[in-house]
Amino acid sequence: MDGVWLLGGRDYRTEGKDSPNERLAFGKDAASRFPCEHVSMRLLVVEDDATIAEPLRTGLRREGFEVDLVSTGADALAAPECDLVLLDLGLPDLDGRVVCRTLRERSDTPIIVVSARGKEVDRVILFELGADDYVVKPFGFLELVARIRAVLRRTAGGPSPSASDVRIEAGALQIDIRTRNVTFDGRPILLTPREYDLLVCLARDPNVVHTREELIEGVWDENWWGSTKTLDVHIASLRKKLAPEIIETVRGVGFRLIDDAAAQ
Length: 264
Hints:
This protein has helices at residues 20-23, 30-33, 50-62, 73-78, 96-106, 120-129, 141-154, 193-203, 212-220, 229-241, 260-263; strands spanning 6-7, 42-46, 66-70, 84-88, 111-115, 133-136, 139-140, 167-170, 173-176, 181-184, 187-189, 210-211, 247-250, 254-257. The protein is an alpha/beta fold. The protein folds into 2 domains: 6-154, Rossmann fold (3-Layer(aba) Sandwich); 167-263, Arc Repressor Mutant, subunit A (Orthogonal Bundle).
């Protein structure tokens, strides 16, 4: 496609002769392709390769984002608060997975991981460490911008409770909607923003079967283009953090959260 070029490789392929910096914004029609929904959103880009980082920063700024650029894990951990982190795993000083986990332990800021590793096991590990999305190099700039905006929409806020619906209890599980605090058997549970939204979706109607489509549309996006394996990864993570038996798989349909007390 004319104007589409790939990040993560040195061979920037376009049908024109413009440089990556010039082609990155896809010309004057970039705004019409993706109307800027997050003009004031600040992104932290963690990338040590200047041939990728500088064109990426230029393109994201043209898309309406404010961009802070750092090249090391230490600088990423010391960076001021932002709205989303775009994190490359191949950093010169720290393991990118350690940076991802540390950022997640500190806050609920969305994290999109960028890596040349595309195997499913790599994606599963990153989701368990707290990543909200995963992009494999090389990737198209249009796809990246779309993913950034989709993650920002999904993490802008959890389910909106009514005034009387500020706490969910399902057996040993307790969820405080106002503070987004989760406890199970009296112990605090640290969840990623997506895990929290998925758990709330299941816990609002315990023992009710939720279809895979319902969960994908409610927790991710009705236009979600990724693999539905993402749902299975997050279900597995919730089982690990809570209890294996708390979420039941209804084969061929979906999942339900088990609350024995409510069923009696």
